[in-house]
User: What shape does this take?
Amino acid sequence: MHQIKNWPADERPREKLLHKGPEALSDAELLALILRTGDASSRCSALDHARQLLARFSTLRSMAQASVTELCELKGIGPAKAAELKAVFELARRFAAAPLQPGEKFSCAEEVFQHFHERLRDRKKEVFLTVLLDSKNRVIREIQVSEGSLSASIVHPREVFAPVVRESAAALLLVHNHPSGDPSPSREDLDITSRLRSAGELMGVRVLDHIIIGNGTYVSLADRGLMS
Assistant: This one.
């Protein structure tokens, strides 16, 4: 059996991580550390199983979206190993979705994208969020306004600005995703942005930007000069 513990020390994933850091490991090596053991009957090591998983699902994201049943279809991956994988992916999702903390500050649209990307990129419906800011553009809180295809009826100024008034916010950012993966703004996106900016002007609240998140990319209406 090709047990990892019998490999030279500098080739074992655990020792490699301890000496060189986790960034030095490949995806397969990191997965092998989670799986820990191989399969005696097939003479496969944990690293072999990790490589088979990557070959089967192509990407870590596809693997994370697989069900326990789908994971267990691979020889050597039983319910226990599948559960460990699902737990790790869920922890990663929760880490990526950690809410903004009061007082944080975004310096550019790219930082907004980086914060919300993992949370929104795989959503099957459009999710519209606002980030309330104080007079120095520091985060007060984030709020989910709606979920579903964007329309004037579900993204209404009343729903957006009620929490702005409660929190005495001075400005806000608009954020939503495109489930298609293409962040190009639609006419509806532009119309909603215009309506909310007009409402903000009446209330003395600055709508600084509308960031549309796609799969691995984004569009900032402010960066494109579409907020005027």
